[in-house]
Design goal:
With 356 residues, the chain is of the alpha/beta class. It is built from 13 helices and 13 strands. The protein has 2 domains: 63 residues, no CATH class; 266 residues, Leucine-rich repeat, LRR (right-handed beta-alpha superhelix) (Alpha-Beta Horseshoe), CATH 3.80.10. Helices cover 29% and strands 18% of the residues. α6 links the parallel β5 and β6. The longest helix has 14 residues. The protein is elongated and about 70 Å long.
Length: 356
């Protein structure tokens, strides 16, 4: 048993009766741990510090107070005139309370953990533009996730925080998720800054300016060409209008679809009144959609069976169709698609009840 414990790599003890003493007890037998999940335990920032300092291979540490613990560690290290680095590849700021982060916390965290590739910010009430720019130090950043809780007061802006960060680190990003982000996002800037994205999820407010106006207004960009504004590697695009803002602008879907290429495999729309049968009729023959394997609609109440039928032909590459809570699509429509797929031996799964 001792030998098995010694070679443990992942340890998930969330919601278990574990304290700082329990974390300290790991060190003698489990030096090989690279993933430790301790949400919902009695472990304090002191225990987080113990884990970081004594588990040299630790890459993922799941706890509410990781950033706070790193900040305290930095202070202690400065007093001792030492500057150790940690192997973490994932940083999460979770909603614990609405108190702002200590000044320079994200910048300090980035300096201590230079190998971080994934940052997830789930408590934007605690982050300012200046704090966000501290992430510019992460040269290997490949996944960036923002999620604003419904009761959060978002303190970041696009022009002062998100755009400069993307300008600095967007080229390395493979995944960008903006979930329930209540700030006007300029999608032309995102496309220009993040040309290597493979996954893009947008559930936010959208700027009403055109993409040409956006990029021309920003003197950090040169004159745009058609080839500049293409996402050559994008495999999955999820676009929705932020649900809590009833009158929020619709996403600029026509412009978005025109920057896609044949790498696209999954396309999902949510809460978009601009998605109509006429819209689908204009775009279903785009080269970028010919390799589409998964197509989803959530609360797109103006699309009907007529528009969706355009994608259900013998030559279609579609493998999954999801239609969720769309008022103009009936249960009979779903049954018809399922029956047609069965009769024609299509490798097609049709769903109408699944969380988006």
């Amino acid at each position: 048993m001792t030998l098995l414990i010694f070679f443990i790599r992942q340890l998930d003890i969330r919601s278990c009766d574990v304290t700082d003493d329990g974390i300290e007890g790991l060190f003698g037998q489990c030096k090989s741990i690279d993933e430790l999940i301790i949400f919902g335990t009695e472990v304090t920032p002191k225990g987080v510090e113990l884990a970081l300092r004594n588990l040299p291979l630790l890459k993922i540490l799941g706890h509410w107070k990781v950033m706070e613990a790193l900040g305290e560690m930095k202070k202690k290290d400065l007093e001792k005139n030492i500057c150790p680095k940690y192997a973490l590849v994932e940083l999460r700021l979770l909603k614990d309370n609405d108190s702002p982060l200590a000044s320079g916390a994200l910048c300090m965290t980035a300096s201590l953990c230079p190998f971080v590739t994934h940052v997830e910010l789930n408590s934007l009430a605690r982050v300012t533009d200046s704090e966000l720019l501290g992430l510019k130090a992460l040269e290997s950043l490949s996944k960036l996730t923002f999620c604003c809780n419904i009761d959060d007061q978002c303190r970041i802006t696009f022009d002062g925080g998100l755009a400069p960060l993307l300008l600095s680190r967007g080229n390395s990003l493979k995944t960008l998720e903006l979930e329930a982000l209540p700030i006007p996002v300029r999608l032309g800037i995102i496309v220009k800054c993040c040309p290597n994205l493979k996954f893009l999820a947008l559930n936010c407010e959208y700027s009403t300016s055109t993409w040409q106006e956006e990029t021309e207004a920003d003197n950090t960009f040169t004159k745009q060409t058609e080839t500049d504004m293409v996402l050559n590697q994008l495999e999955e695009l999820r676009v929705s209008r932020i649900g809590r803002l009833f009158r929020a602008p619709e996403p600029p879907m026509k412009e978005l679809l025109l920057v896609l290429t044949t790498t696209l495999e999954t396309l999902a729309f949510g809460n978009c009144d601009s998605i109509t049968d006429n819209f689908l009729r204009q775009f279903y023959q785009l080269d970028s959609l010919k390799g589409l394997k998964q197509l989803e609609f959530l609360k797109c109440n103006k699309v009907t069976k007529v528009g969706i039928d355009l994608f259900l032909k013998d030559e279609s590459s579609l493998e999954k169709l999801g239609v969720y809570e769309c008022d103009s699509v009936s249960e009979e429509d779903i049954l018809d698609w399922q029956e047609r797929a069965k009769n024609l031996n299509w490798d097609l799964e049709v769903e109408d009840s699944e969380e988006y």
